[in-house]
Amino acid sequence: MSTPSKMISLKSSEGEIFEVEEIIAHHSLTIKHMIEEDCADNPIPLANVNSKILKMVIEYGKKHRESGGEITEVDEETQKWDKELVNVDQETLFRLLMAANYLNIKNLLDLTCETVASMIRGKTIQEIRDTFGIKNDFTPEEEEEVRNENEWAFN
């Protein structure tokens, strides 16, 4: 019979408390360091992570605990699950990316960054602007200067 894992309380930006096994919380180096510094007696406040995103992060941790943890070693089913996790609207994807960065969850950060990169790959500057709702605030002269300074990137 396995020993029950210690539970850690995480507090989202809205104040919602999530109970999570310590082994799953350790997917986040930020949380792991807080636990090691004895800062986990009370709920760990995660002011930069809302409840919706924290649920996603916890589910990611649970899934990767089941599969062995390393994204390079995960099975095909977990890879499919990961793709579904990031198959969300842009705002959710960017919030998940920022949470992965803030919480220092390398594999989740890699997954979200790879997803954003795939949204950019092969697109023109205008298509990228349209995809992300970016307004071109350069004058034609400034744009030409940037093109000249970074000519290698436009060829």
From TrEMBL:
The keyword Signal does not apply. Pathway: Protein modification; protein ubiquitination. InterPro entries: SKP1 (IPR016897), SKP1-like (IPR001232), SKP1-like_dim_sf (IPR036296), SKP1/BTB/POZ_sf (IPR011333), Skp1_comp_dimer (IPR016072), Skp1_comp_POZ (IPR016073). Residues 106-153 form the SKP1 component dimerisation domain. Keywords: Nucleus, Ubl conjugation pathway. Residues 6-65 form the SKP1 component POZ domain. The keyword Acyltransferase does not apply. GO terms for cellular component: nucleus. It is found in: Nucleus. One of its GO terms (biological process) is jasmonic acid mediated signaling pathway. Involved in ubiquitination and subsequent proteasomal degradation of target proteins. Together with CUL1, RBX1 and a F-box protein, it forms a SCF E3 ubiquitin ligase complex. The functional specificity of this complex depends on the type of F-box protein. In the SCF complex, it serves as an adapter that links the F-box protein to CUL1. Part of a SCF (SKP1-cullin-F-box) protein ligase complex. Belongs to the SKP1 family. This is SKP1-like protein. It comes from Papaver somniferum (Opium poppy).
